[in-house]
Amino acid sequence: MFANLLFAAAVAAAPIQLSPQARAAIAPVLDAIAQERAAQAALPPPNNESEPIERLGRLDQAPRLAMAKVDLSQAPAAEREAAQAAMWQAIHAQDLANEAALFKLAPPEGWFGSSRYGDDAARAAFEILQHSDLDEQRRYLPVLEAFVAFGDAEGQDYALLYDHVAVSQGQPQRYGSQLHCENGKMTPYPVEDPAGLGDRRQSVGFVEPYADYLAGAQKPAGC
Q1: Distance (Å, rounded) from C-alpha 57 to C-alpha 216?
Q2: Is the dihedral of CA 128, 131, 133, 139 positive or negative?
Q3: How confident is the model over 99-109, as pLDDT tens digits?
Q4: In sequence order, which residues have a C-beta less than 8 Å from that of residue 69 and are 6 or more positions away?
Q5: Secondary structure (H, E, C), 14-62
Q6: Is 102 helix (H, G, I), strand (E, B) or coil?
Q7: Per-domain residue ranges for the chain?
């Protein structure tokens, strides 16, 4: 029930009308968005300045957690690309709404530091930023770096955002966090100074050996 309205909006521009099998394949993601929206619509007003950010964080994560239930192999082969596009259109639409709502809440100091907002809200804010427009990511990257320097943001968050911005601009990443699907395997994008990668990762708080990070990387739907 929840998926039908979102599905109609998501595939309006798709060149292929999806079959019931293709709709069923991506329904977990569309359901997750609709169900989280409905749940939040029934909530009372937030009690503090952190709660709105935490709610946005749940909207950000709900479809991504549901992607583990998506099995595009259940869709007809000719429709899998269109089904995946429809799924990501729905996620992107929610991301845009989350981004707009979050940045309206930005405090004068420039970011949502954990000392003021708490760890949960700070985590939610970063996840939304990570999925936001590239221009916003570039704008907030030096802000986040400054918050890391003062111990009010996670070094790993800065590293993830730095790499994402670099890769999006066609530049080598610095911390090796950004991967892509290549021949059915998650593979790192080019890394600057590969010999120093381990030291750089340790400097921002990554403790897991890089080989273990690669081995544990989850493949997205369609990889």
Answers
A1: 24
A2: positive
A3: 999 999 999 99
A4: 28
A5: CCCCCCHHHHHHHHHHHHHHHHHHHHHHCCCCCCCCCHHHHHHHHHHHH
A6: helix
A7: 2-109
E-state strands within the chain: 179-182, 185-188
Q: Identify the pLDDT of residue 31.
A: 97
Sign of the torsion angle spanned by Cα atoms 205, 210, 212, 215: positive
Q: What is the pLDDT of residues 35-46, one digit of tens each?
A: 999 999 999 999
Please, what is the end-to-end C-alpha distance for the chain in angstroms?
A: 28
Tokens matching residue 50: 């952190």
**Tens of pLDDT along 48-66?**
999 999 999 999 999 999 9
- What digits encode the pLDDT tens for the residues 16-29? 579 999 999 999 99
Count of beta carbons in the 10 Å neighbourhood of residue 174: 18
**For 173, which DSSP code?**
B
**Is residue 102 within 8 Å of 144, Cβ to Cβ?**
no
Give the pair of three-digit tokens for residue 167. 């890769």
